[in-house]
């Protein structure tokens, strides 16, 4: 179940702040639980067909509504397997984009409004084929038919049971956790927290005092140097390529304490703002809804300080010709045990495929 990106911030704050009035929604949550569990059991019992790809499928998702940091991890996993000599491909729903035809192959010329911001960013950062389709089974079939991929990574789709999977990875925001641990709409959970015990990996984004599982892995998002939006280019070949972060485009001379307008149209903007504050900047917070489609009007701030945004937002703003606007790229870092176990699971899978 996916929610419109216009989901109001007050609802997210209520879920993750355990607002007392939410108990009034419990009857609706009971209905949701019944329908969700019945749907899942139908796939598990074979009442509804679940399609299995001829190559291993890794699903990276979450069980909560709201950003948890999946995209950086999808990029890191793709790059990891690529470094092992494999040919990974990625499928996505293409949330935030709209197209008249699917499945849709993401290319260097794709528009975020058509394919979605996250799929385009993933394609650009990984130089791997990406296919979007609300029906992920059709996306995988297209990926396998058109590209010689020996591994499929699904960006989100943990609850898309029509697509069979071999490895399931759940990402949890370390600070917000599971909110009030209630199912929709009383809480942010798409599935019961008991589902965590069934997954191959639970990855916690950021330090957390909570233990969601004894063998959970910890992920951190490491910021790179700020880069000018206007000069932030990808070296395009047949697809998108590596980020060009060389030359005078980086902000090596910016000083801590400088005031900045921090713009974030992501699931959890506060995480981005805190990263900038940790770097020493005096942050004026400018949160927007997740997958927000920016226009130049959105940047008409009274305080004309430098603008700093996420990479996901910047990929939608390069056509706006913004002046004094910067990007803070981040990379996902996960402990070594995670990569060793992930590779071991993949090697076991291919011995049976």
Question: Could you give a quick summary of the protein structure above?
Answer:
With 353 residues, this protein is α/β, with parallel strands linked by helices. The chain is built from nine helices and 14 strands.
Sum up the structure in keywords:
14 strands; globular; 9 helices; Rossmann fold; 353 residues; alpha/beta; five-stranded mixed beta sheet; disordered N terminus; 2 domains; nine-stranded mixed beta sheet
Q: How far do the termini sit from each other?
A: 30 Å
Low-confidence stretches: 1-6, 235-253
Average pLDDT confidence is 89
The residue fraction in helices comes out at: 25-40%
Order of helices and strands: HHEHEEHHEHEEEEEEHEEHEEH
By CATH, the superfamily of the largest domain comes out as: P-loop containing nucleotide triphosphate hydrolases
Beta-strand level of the residues, as a percent range? 15-25%
CATH topology of the largest domain: Rossmann fold
Number of domains: 2
- CATH class of the largest domain, named Alpha Beta
What does the model show?
The structure is a single chain. The chain has 353 residues and is of the alpha/beta class. It has two domains: 9-219 and 334-350, Rossmann fold; 225-328, no CATH class. Helix content is 27%, strand content 19%. It is built from nine helices and 14 strands.
């Amino acid at each position: 179940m996916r929610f419109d990106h216009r989901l109001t911030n007050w609802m997210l704050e209520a879920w993750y702040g355990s607002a007392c009035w939410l108990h009034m929604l419990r009857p609706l949550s009971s209905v949701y639980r019944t329908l969700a569990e019945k749907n899942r059991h139908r796939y598990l019992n074979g009442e509804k067909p679940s399609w299995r790809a001829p190559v291993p499928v890794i699903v990276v998702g979450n069980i909560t509504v709201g950003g948890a940091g999946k995209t950086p991890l999808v990029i890191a996993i793709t790059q990891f397997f690529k470094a092992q000599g494999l040919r990974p491909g990625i499928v996505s729903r293409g949330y935030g984009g709209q197209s008249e035809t699917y499945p849709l192959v993401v290319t260097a010329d794709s528009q975020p409004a058509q394919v979605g911001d996250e799929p385009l960013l993933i394609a650009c950062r990984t130089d791997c084929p990406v296919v979007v389709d609300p029906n992920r089974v059709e996306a995988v079939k297209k990926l396998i038919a058109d590209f010689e991929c020996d591994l499929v990574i699904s960006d989100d789709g943990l609850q898309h049971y029509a697509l069979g999977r071999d490895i399931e990875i759940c990402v949890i925001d370390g600070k917000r956790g599971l909110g009030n641990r209630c199912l929709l709409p009383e809480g942010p959970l798409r599935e019961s927290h008991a589902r965590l015990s069934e997954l191959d990996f639970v990855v916690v984004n950021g330090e957390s005092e909570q233990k969601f599982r004894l063998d959970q892995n910890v992920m951190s998002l490491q910021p790179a140097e700020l880069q000018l939006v206007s000069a932030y280019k990808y070296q395009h070949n047949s697809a998108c390529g590596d980020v060009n972060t060389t030359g005078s485009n980086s902000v090596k001379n910016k000083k801590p304490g400088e005031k900045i307008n921090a713009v974030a149209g992501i699931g959890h903007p506060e995480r981005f703002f805190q990263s900038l504050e940790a770097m020493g900047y005096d942050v004026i917070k400018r949160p927007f809804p997740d997958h927000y489609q920016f226009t130049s009007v959105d940047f008409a701030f009274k305080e004309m300080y430098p603008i700093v945004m996420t990479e996901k937002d910047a990929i939608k703003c390069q056509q706006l010709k913004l002046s004094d606007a910067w990007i803070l790229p981040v990379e996902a870092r996960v402990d070594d045990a995670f990569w060793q176990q992930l590779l071991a699971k993949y090697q076991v899978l291919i011995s049976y495929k």
